[in-house]
Design goal:
Distance between the termini: 38 Å
Order of helices and strands: HEHEHHEHEHEEHEHHEEEEEHEE
Structural class: alpha/beta
Bound molecules: S-adenosylmethionine
Strand order of the largest sheet: 1-5-4-3-6-7-14-13
Strand content: 15-25%
Helix content: 25-40%
Number of helices: 10
């Protein structure tokens, strides 16, 4: 259950009940769920462009958003439960400790969440906003349709009176489709997903996020912190091999969406910490020389034995790096919150 104790009857429901007793006409309650999709074929075009661009370069690369079809999203959920994957537990611990304070200090009536996934940790924030009596609307925004629709259904059942306006889209292309604010809001970007942007695009993206914020709004962002490379590498290369499966899943996406003929078993999963850039890289390394046909693009891709395809970077942060990125994007940090072991940070920022 998301919250316990006596639940107040939402004001609209109480008014409707009173009106019925008086025999007055009852206004139809507004639909609790609305979901807008902005992908319609556009995502396949984006995938095709990324494949044409990324697999014809000397150093092959694909952006990480293509991991997340329904299977990829389920695999990511399993990763979050793994003993090696500390970021989810650390971020949750911070949220559990600070959510009440966040609700009180922001006065937010709505929570917009970019890359919302299963919205598992989100419940901690929703509980706090509900307990503060301000919660009106939740806006989950994700590229995975099933995740947005499932969380909309589950959360409207768990939080009576909550409006959910889901957005199925690519936050690199559709940020302007976030619905207009209904009051002060928190824009949450959790899970360390900001680390998936290389530095230049990261600052560009943060500038776009700043534009989304009104004077009363806050950005709540989760960032993984620089630490012992052994801890970092284990988090991206678990003993059970779930992250390896997640990594190879992108090849199955290419097979299904673009008629490619990758055999995932031809690739090893590689996770390494790049000390110069302070980011984790996930790669897929060809076990032998390969020729892969991407039928829909009329593209033949050659891999030498041992050649690598980079599938994700996950940048790790220091307070200075994050402050610099936020400042360059026109934002100012209002709060820096970490877990007891300082593994992960949550920051609250406003437009400067
Ligand atoms: C690292 S997971 C984090 C999930 C969740 N926020 C958490 O903290 O556990 C990244 C999420 O962002 C979504 N995502 C990745 N790239 C995206 C994009 N370009 N546009 C929209 N959603 C994206 C994925 O589908 C996934 O749900």
């Amino acid at each position: 259950m998301a919250f316990t104790g006596t639940r107040a009857v939402p004001a609209a429901a109480a008014a409707a009940a009173a009106a019925t007793l008086r025999g007055a006409p009852v206004a139809e309650p507004r639909e609790a769920i609305r979901v807008d999709s902005h992908l319609d074929g556009g995502q396949e075009r984006a995938l095709a462009d990324d494949v044409l661009d990324g697999l014809t370069r000397p150093f092959k690369e694909l952006p990480p958003k293509h991991f997340y079809d329904a299977r990829g999203a389920r695999l990511f959920d399993r990763i979050c439960e793994l003993p090696e994957y500390y970021p989810t537990r650390a971020e949750r611990a911070i949220l559990e400790q600070r959510a009440g304070e966040l609700a009180a200090s922001t006065g937010a009536v709505e929570l917009v969440e970019l890359g919302s996934g299963t919205a598992a940790k989100t419940r901690v924030l929703l509980d706090a906003l509900h307990a503060a009596g301000t919660l009106r609307r939740y806006v989950p925004f994700d590229v995975t349709e099933s995740m947005v629709r499932d969380s909309a259904r589950r959360l409207t059942a768990e939080y009576p009176g909550l409006q959910v306006h889901g957005v199925i889209g690519d936050f690199e292309r559709h940020l302007d489709r976030v619905p207009r604010a209904v009051g002060p809001r928190i824009v949450a970007f959790l899970g360390g997903t900001i680390g998936n942007f290389p530095p230049g695009s990261r600052r560009r993206f943060l500038r776009q996020l700043a534009r989304l914020l009104g004077d009363e709004d806050f950005l709540l962002m989760g960032t993984d912190l620089v630490k012992d490379p052994r801890v970092l590498e284990a988090a991206y290369d678990d003993a059970e091999g779930v992250t390896a499966e997640f990594n190879r899943n992108v090849l199955l996406v290419l097979n299904r969406e673009l008629g490619a003929d990758f055999d995932p078993a031809d690739f090893d999963h590689v996770a390494l910490f790049d000390r110069e850039h302070e980011w984790i890289e996930m790669r897929l390394r060809a076990r032998r020389e390969l020729r892969v046909n991407v039928a829909d693009l009329d593209l033949l891709v050659h891999f030498d034995a041992g050649e690598e395809l980079r599938t994700e970077i996950s940048a790790k942060f220091t307070p200075e790096r994050l402050t610099g990125d936020l400042a360059a994007a026109g934002m100012q940090m209002a709060a820096w919150m970490t877990d007891p072991e300082a593994l992960f940070a949550l920051t609250l920022s406003q437009r400067s």
